Amino acid sequence: MVNRRHFISLAASAATGAGVGFGQPALAAGEDFPFQLSDEEWRARLSEMEYYVLRRHGTERAFTSPLDSFYEPGTYHCAGCDHPLYSSETKFNSYTGWPSFWESLPTAIGTTVDTSLLMVRIECHCANCGGHLGHIFDDGPEPTGKRHCINGVALAFKPA
């Protein structure tokens, strides 16, 4: 049985897997984040997929991240700048194919409105470097009711 969340995951996976160019452009050069590198420095620092997700607002295919089904105690950091983003205590299985959290660490992320893919979504990014992490939806568990649907490749796990 395919529910709404599963359908959206599969559709997004198909679109990104097919290489459809619906992603947003890289962050504007003048954006002010505490941690900044040139585009050349980002390319040297990140893998091709990390660069695509974090700097070009891409999306990894659903169900490809080992962090999706990983539930050890610790903290998830930005893969681009090592900024702490999420506690493992807020991680849950959303069955979407991406690591999901019901809350970020205080002041860890920023948000913007994303109108790509012919819909309005809330995009979340690292508050330290501006790297694209994923999106926030209103279908998560209590106590927040939010689902931070995060690309696993944008995260680096640090055990407790």
Strand content: 25-35%
Total E-strand runs? 9
Helix content: 10-25%
Mean of all residue-level pLDDT scores: 86
As residue ranges, the low-confidence spans are 9-30
H-E string: HHHEEEEEEEEE
Main sheet makeup: 6 strands, antiparallel
Return the CATH topology: Metal Binding Protein, Guanine Nucleotide Exchange Factor, Chain A
Count of folded domains: 1
Q: What's the architecture in CATH terms?
A: Beta Complex
User: N-to-C terminal Cα separation, in Å?
Assistant: 37 Å
Shape: globular
Name the CATH class: Mainly Beta
Question: Could you characterize the architecture of this molecule?
Answer:
This protein has 160 residues and is an alpha+beta fold. It has one domain: Metal Binding Protein, Guanine Nucleotide Exchange Factor, Chain A (Beta Complex). The chain is built from three helices and nine strands. A six-stranded antiparallel β-sheet has the order 3-4-8-7-6-5. Strands 2-1-9 form a three-stranded antiparallel β-sheet, with no helix packed on it. A hairpin with a 5-residue loop joins strand 6 (121-126) and strand 7 (132-137). The longest helix has 14 residues, at 4-17.
